[in-house]
Amino acid sequence: MKKIYVHSHASALDFIFLEPNVWSFVSEVEDAEFVVSVWENNLEQQLKTIPVRKDQILLLITIDETAVNPNLEFYPVFAELLKHHEKTLFIHNNLLSDLEGIKDDHFLCGNLFFNRHVYCFVDQRITKDGYKWSINNIPNSVFKLESMKKESYLDNKLFLCLNRLPYKHQPISNLHDEYKAKFKKFFIKNSDVWARTYLGDPGRGKPLLYGDCDMTDQMASEKIVSGTFAPASNKYYRTSYVSIYIESNPNLHGNFDPCEKTYNPLIQGNFILPFARPNFIKLCKEYYGFKFPTWIDYSYETIMDDEKRFQAYVDVITQLNKFSLKQIHEFYLNDFHMLDHNRNIFLQRKYNKTYEKIHQAIQKLGW
Which CATH number fits domain 2-111+352-365: 3.30.310, 4.10.75, 3.30.1360, 3.40.50? Predict the structure, then answer.
């Protein structure tokens, strides 16, 4: 058993160290072989707060940044940290490092988001009081997988959009917010698409209902705060066909790190149409083996220019909106095997085992 001390805890850690037969958590840093901390986006602060000896191995969890590409602007920060503590391994979430290989053995992929879905939906490894993420306690019933059978198409919606679209005067802080704002404008301009979409109120940024809430329970909707990992009510998935959304890293140089925006519809029975980094769907096929229908035109994702790719993306939504619900339902029936296949990937695929990669890195680095 490897003795590990957790310096700064985050929910992310629960889904990276999922090997109880490997790790033994200790209460005193002096007793540990490994010290875990979460990257705080501040090198000076990080160096002051991490109580680690030269002989201990520091495992630094980077959730938002990835650092598998030395050309990325934050990479020099991590390189500087290595000068202060050589025995540092960065555990990130960019699956490109597994697909393309990584030249720097200090960086390992933990695949946090996929592990989280297997943990919650498949293994149901959550406490008796529910799964705690951020500041919300989410009941166990939220993660119950139900039948993927769609109800009568006559009352269904074509699209499901779970992006929390920005408020009218909400500041735009990153590229993800920027494209969500553009997506909101698209819906406002194209009322015919909006009419066939489950969509949070784009005027107020209000989300849809989550978990096992009744679809008319507006009070329940408002109890869910931004940033919470909580799957949408299964009722939405049973009465819609295609999930449309802005992924977290939608730009040309973005990471390939699908999150709940992609994994939720894939495990709950919807086809997906994401605006993400180029070749996102192609990478999903290569990395996981997910299957996607031919009646959705994914050619937009080969466009490298972000603006042109986004315009091509919303054009695909407009084209799909020309189909009748009867036609879409027939597509769904013909391709139901794909939905079944995609759910089974979560049911059958093993966790990303972090320690195996850590052990290999230690061997290569001669520690």
Answer: 3.40.50
